[in-house]
Specification:
The structure holds two protein chains of two kinds.
Chain A lengths: L1 H19 L3 H21 L3 H25 L10 H27 L7 H8 L8 H9 L1 H35 L2 H14 L3 H24 L7 H17 L10 H23 L12 H25 L12
Helix pairs in contact in A: 1-2, 2-3, 3-10, 6-7, 7-11, 7-12, 9-10, 10-12, 11-12
Chain B lengths: L1 H24 L3 H23 L6 H34 L3
Chain lengths: 326, 94
């Protein structure tokens, strides 16, 4: 009880800290803290699947992405106090709070739902091909949502890769104009490129462990908390670590990487559409095939999600950081 | 056994509190790292030892110990990296 109260207060404090910090770095630290507290909250609500995903993606990978962005920003733009903007933000925030309060109030007024989702799930889980409820919902009963989610991820990385192309071209244009600037930045970034030996040996130890854990989490998904998103996040974490230890992974956008990025959505769509040829509905697994197909989709999704999250980190546009890649 | 567990976990928590106080009170990066790693290594170690008797299987004990070892490795290497970067930055102007 008291732990939950402290957890709730901590969540609010961390959320306020994200927005009220003077330094961007402090905001990022608060953001990661918020993610970890949120993962703990999911655990307390007995949702370990969500807790795993939040800790790995929300706190871990997003934190890494934000820190990486901070490193690229030369000088964080100083935020000047602007009365009109503050007033507008206050009005918007108050309006959103009022809307939330109103919807919460109407929710309380509604009659209790007559159907019981947990019981419905328990009654139908034998048809789903897996024995873990969350996976059954994600990849069988509501697989349409999951398909859209991974499609959104794919769109994100496609946009990321194209932004990188255009930014790189504009940077090259800048390089041509100012030569003196480049030598200065080149001198400051060169020591970072040699990863310390200690870091390298830790990376050599951790990356295989992370990959083994990812496979375990993927496999566990059919019977226990786990699944493609968590396993993909672990793979991405292994890739980020390897990258920090200056091991070159997926730094070139070649055919292999592109195939890996898209294969999850591709196989998912293939499995979703092919039953229609024999008269079943879209996304309906043929009887008896559900378990195998779910494992297949999850395996492919893990590869794609891992590579997409990793590529978002590796292919983020960096300013004039030569070497290291390719 | 139960009381022994309480003693171990309390000692572990004490190390975390001391580490946090050190992190807040020590003047510079290097001494703060010292305080933090003490909390990670000893505090977590005591808590893991305190939790071992209430595990039902050897596999769970192994997982707990693995957690401790991994955090030991990660915290010592990251402490080294932070200290290394700090020294590099402070020595540069000379």
């Amino acid at each position: 009880m008291w732990f939950d109260v402290i957890l709730g207060i901590g969540l609010i404090v961390a959320a306020v800290g994200v927005f009220r910090s003077d330094e961007l770095f402090r905001s990022v630290v608060f953001f990661v803290t918020f993610g970890i507290l949120l993962a703990l909250t999911w655990l307390r609500l007995q949702a370990p699947d969500l807790a795993l995903a939040e800790a790995a993606i929300g706190a871990g990978l997003t934190g890494v992405l934000l820190l990486d962005t901070l490193g690229v920003l030369k000088r964080p733009a100083a935020v000047k106090f602007n009365l009109a903007k503050h007033a507008l933000a206050t009005i918007v925030a108050l309006g959103a709070a009022a809307g939330l309060a109103w919807s919460f109030w109407t929710l309380l007024q509604l009659p209790a739902p007559t159907y019981n989702l947990v019981e419905t799930l328990a009654a139908n889980i034998d048809d789903s091909g897996v024995s873990h409820g969350i996976t059954a919902v994600l990849l069988n009963f509501r697989s349409y949502d999951t398909l859209l989610e991974v499609a959104v991820l794919l769109v994100a990385i496609v946009i990321g890769l194209s932004l990188r192309q255009s930014l790189r071209q504009s940077l090259r244009h800048d390089d041509a104009q100012s030569d003196g600037d480049e030598t200065v930045t080149g001198a400051t970034t060169s020591p970072e490129q040699q990863a310390p030996a200690l870091l390298k040996s830790l990376v050599h130890l951790l990356v295989p462990l992370l990959l083994i854990t990812a496979i375990f989490v993927l496999w566990a998904g059919s019977t226990r908390p786990g699944g493609a998103f968590q396993a993909g996040a672990l793979i991405a974490a292994a890739g980020v670590l390897a990258r920090l230890g200056n091991i070159d992974i997926a730094s070139r956008v070649n055919l292999l990487l592109r195939t890996g990025l898209t294969i999850g959505v591709f196989i998912f769509l293939l499995v979703a559409v092919s039953p229609m040829l024999t008269g079943y509905a879209f996304l309906a697994y043929p009887p008896g095939w559900a378990g195998v197909l779910i494992i297949l989709i999850e395996l492919m999704l893990t590869i794609s999600i891992g590579l997409i999250l990793l590529s978002l980190f590796i292919h983020a546009p960096r300013e004039k950081r030569n070497g290291g890649s390719s | 056994m139960h009381y022994l567990q309480i003693v171990f976990i309390s000692i572990g928590c004490l190390f975390f509190i001391i580490g946090t106080v050190g992190l807040l009170r020590f003047p510079d990066v290097l001494t703060r790292i010292h305080a933090l790693t003490k909390a990670d290594n000893l505090g977590l170690g005591f808590i893991v030892v305190g939790l071992i008797p209430s595990q039902s299987s050897a596999a769970d004990v192994a997982k707990l110990l693995l957690c401790w070892l991994l955090i030991l490795g990660a915290s010592s290497v990251s402490a080294y990296l932070v200290a290394n970067q700090h020294i590099r930055q402070t020595r540069k102007p000379e």
